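Risk register update: the risk of archive-format incompatibility is retired. Evidence:
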Amino acid sequence: MDKFTAMRVFVRIADAGNLSAASRQLGLSLTSVSRQLMALEEVLGTTLVERTTRHFSLTEAGRLYYERAVRILEEVAEVERGLTTQTGTASGRLHVSTPSLLGRLRLAPMLPVFLAEQTRVSIDLTLADRPVRLAEEGIDVALAIGPLEDSGLIVRKLDDIQLVVCAAPDYLRRRGEPATPDDLTDHDCLAFSDIPGVAEWSFQNGEARRSSRVASRLNANDLDTLVSAALAGAGLVRAPYW
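Archived output:
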């Protein structure tokens, strides 16, 4: 057994909260992850995880080992980053998450050039129109739009995004062009929302900001779907200007 690998697997199990999630994040079979854990427990001579079909928790020994293992792995990663900086060559596998439309239109076109320049780096790209949990899902870096719930993350602002309400010319010829937020009540709105039938669009005029609830004809938590529907003339969509 490679004790260092087993340590990494155990930390991922503890972060993920169960063996199945850890196996998906690590790209290993559930059997392999389970064997790594059992082998580590055998070498250490103690139970690290109490597990049944419905329950999963770290033992006292498991919590102590987890805290120390995390520090060890962080120190190793810091050493590796230092060596990478000295050699000037990035290497390894990078898991990146981004909202689907942003990833498809802005990030994906950059990847071929990046991969050609960084020949020792591999990318796992996840397109997800939902909040992601970096540690639990094994994500190294995430592009996000709007405020972040987790204030403990290291954040770098990349740009401002302007949202615009727009529609296909065919729809505007049939239904007219709205001039104010109040006009939206007479239009078919295609809304990005996780709550069925309810959406709120905000507008800014100088320093003044107002929000308008819109009754949407189509609700979806995938912006690509809404943009495609708008292009087909189904209604108004509120989307990033790009």
